[in-house]
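lol ok so funny story. i was supposed to be doing the assay writeup but got distracted and ended up predicting the structure for this chain instead. priorities right. anyway since i did it might as well share w the group, maybe its usefull for someone
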Amino acid sequence: MQRRIVVAHPDFGRKLKELREKHGLSLRRLGGMIHCSHGHLWDLESGIKRPSLSVAVLLDQALEAGGQLSAMVSEVSADTGRRGVAVEQAMVAMPSGLEFAPDWRHGIDVAVDLWRGDMQRRNLLRQVGFSATASCQRRCDG
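and the output, tada:
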């Protein structure tokens, strides 16, 4: 099963708020119309969350936007990474939800160094074990 991620145009929230205010609707009223919480709509308007394609379609219908909002949202494959130019621009502007600490590379380097140390110790123990076995066999055979 292919994993999908949602990509929204950076101006989605601004456009949503503009259309909502144009129709004189509060967040609560619009939320009631599309069966969505007003808090979630606020998160969409402020850019904290990205809308699903189905929510964008519902918003289009409720605000009589003629597909303006749903055109700003697309789903792309998370597995193949195939994205268009417009999607790349949207990805740069929108927070992805993944944030790495500034020193994340250091953490990876530490983990790799620990793994390498474990592998070196393992190889050393194998060599010592084989040497001891060979030495023991010489004594026993001799």
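Residues 100-142 form one domain. Residues 53 and 123 are 53 Å apart (CA to CA).
back to the writeup now i swear
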